[in-house]
Amino acid sequence: ALYHHFDSKQALFEAVFIELEEEFIEIGAQVITPGASAWDNLVAGCHAFLDTCLRPDIRRIVLLDGPAVLGPERWREIEDQYALAAVLAGLQQAMDDGVVTRRPALPRARMVLAAINEAGLYIAQSDRPRVARREAGETFDALLDGLRI
Length: 149
Prior knowledge:
Helices cover 78% and strands 0% of the residues. It contains six helices and no strands. It starts with 8 loop residues before the first helix and ends with a helix.
């Protein structure tokens, strides 16, 4: 019955993938603290993503199967629409607040997104995901700290 609504298995997979990307945005919005600095909210959003990487559905659909099933171009289009937009907004606000050195925001956001995706993949591929989550979080914090003034 599901296939009645979708042209193919790939179309169904893409719909589920997009639904999870939208869920990331919702989770990120939930950890934003009104009155907190843009920097603190950016870091909290990144850590919320890393926390979701412990979920089996996220590990399988978004991190392991997503790029292969969707293909690199479509996967990136979806990532750009959701994840990149969120990272870009957070970095831009942190630059506007004077917390992060002003540099071109888009390439910086792409690199932060690539790093967090790799951190998520590290968690997803680990035999000990909770340990990997802690390690990835500590490493990601150190990486982000390098952006601060």
